[in-house]
Specification:
Radius of gyration: 17 Å
Helix content: 40-55%
Strand content: 15-25%
Largest sheet: 5 strands, parallel
Distance between the termini: 22 Å
Number of helices: 9
CATH architecture: 3-Layer(aba) Sandwich
Number of domains: 1
Strand order of the largest sheet: 3-2-1-4-5
CATH class: Alpha Beta
Length: 183
């Protein structure tokens, strides 16, 4: 994409965010634009619960965990390719949708997000961040579809057991590599 000043990508570490991270890297490389990988987080229980019972120790633990999730997501998505583009990792304590929209504030920015799961029930429970970004962003938004592995697992006869087990990064990477080879 020409004319892109910055590429901002949501990096939650979820299987849906990994294809978004990979796609954002490709766009940043082609446009010679810096890539800002944003991991936004809120304390467990929300901001109100944390304000009622503040704990500096827990705040530090949560910040460190957020940094680690971002680092793991970048490693899982790009592995050794991180040196190919100017990556600026950013950890923000804020609601993810609002943080991404505020970060991509210019019409010259491109916001890349994972599209979330498909299906009526999945949209009710997941995809809140992507819907927020699509509705409120002032910059172009590119929503990248989730990997086929997550869709297939949910639709299987015994998909209920898979949904209660977390999808690992290795499974998502393996599925992504399989998709690339079959195209």
């Amino acid at each position: 994409m020409s004319g892109v000043r910055r590429v901002i990508v949501g990096a939650s570490g979820s299987p849906g965010s990994l294809p978004a991270l990979r796609y954002a890297m490709g766009v940043a490389q082609r446009g010679h634009a810096p890539l800002i990988a944003v991991h936004a987080w809120v304390p467990p229980g929300g901001e109100l619960a944390e304000r009622q019972h503040p704990s500096p120790y827990l705040q530090q633990v949560w910040r460190n965990a957020a940094r680690e999730r971002l680092r793991d997501a970048l490693d899982a998505a790009w592995a050794a390719d991180q040196d190919a583009v100017d990556v600026q990792p950013m950890v923000v304590r804020a609601d993810p949708g609002q943080a991404l929209v505020e970060m991509a504030s210019s019409a010259d920015d491109l916001l890349v997000i994972g599209a979330g799961r498909r299906g009526r029930m999945a949209r009710m429970r997941h995809g809140r961040v992507s819907r927020y970004c699509l509705a409120h962003a002032r910059s172009p938004v590119l929503a990248v579809a989730p990997p086929a592995l997550s869709d297939r697992a949910v639709r299987r006869l015994h998909g209920w057991s898979f949904r209660r087990r977390p999808l690992t990064v290795e499974q998502a990477q393996h599925e992504w590599e399989g998709q690339k080879l079959s195209r």
